[in-house]
Amino acid sequence: MVVLLTGGTGGAKLVLGFHEETAPEDLVVVCNTGDDSLVHGLHVSPDVDTIVYTLAGLIDPAKGWGIRDDTFTVLDQLRRLGNETWFQLGDRDIATHLTRTRLLAEGQPLSRVTAALCGELGVRSTVLPMSDQRVETRLSTSEGELSFQEYFVKARWQPDVLSLRYRGIEDSRPSPGLLEAIHDAVLVVVCPSNPATSIGPVLAVPGVREALRGTPAKVAAVSPMVGGRSFSGPAHKLMATLGVEASAAGLAAAYRDFADVLVIDAEDRELQPAVEQFGVDVRATSIRMDTLADKKRLARELLRLV
Amino acid sequence: MVVLLTGGTGGAKLVLGFHEETAPEDLVVVCNTGDDSLVHGLHVSPDVDTIVYTLAGLIDPAKGWGIRDDTFTVLDQLRRLGNETWFQLGDRDIATHLTRTRLLAEGQPLSRVTAALCGELGVRSTVLPMSDQRVETRLSTSEGELSFQEYFVKARWQPDVLSLRYRGIEDSRPSPGLLEAIHDAVLVVVCPSNPATSIGPVLAVPGVREALRGTPAKVAAVSPMVGGRSFSGPAHKLMATLGVEASAAGLAAAYRDFADVLVIDAEDRELQPAVEQFGVDVRATSIRMDTLADKKRLARELLRLV
Question: What confidence score (pLDDT) does residue B9 get?
Answer without folding.
Answer: 87
